[in-house]
Amino acid sequence: MEGGSRKDRPPEYEVMARPLETVVHIAHHQFFVQDAEARWDGQFRNNPWAQEGPGVADGLLGVLSPRAAGPAPV
Question: Which residue segment(s) compose the domain that 32 sits in?
């Protein structure tokens, strides 16, 4: 197995390896996912509806796909 055995992996890898779930769709080309165990309060540190890009929040990942690609696969 590439990267050694599971027990040799750093603890932060286990956090990254958890499944993600979609929490909000802004448009067909922008959506947000979070770790299923994270608790997002719905607040962003920026304004994703303005020209500030994808939303930024602890435990939240913003995904922006090309508009021409149509709905983003989830």
Answer: 19-69
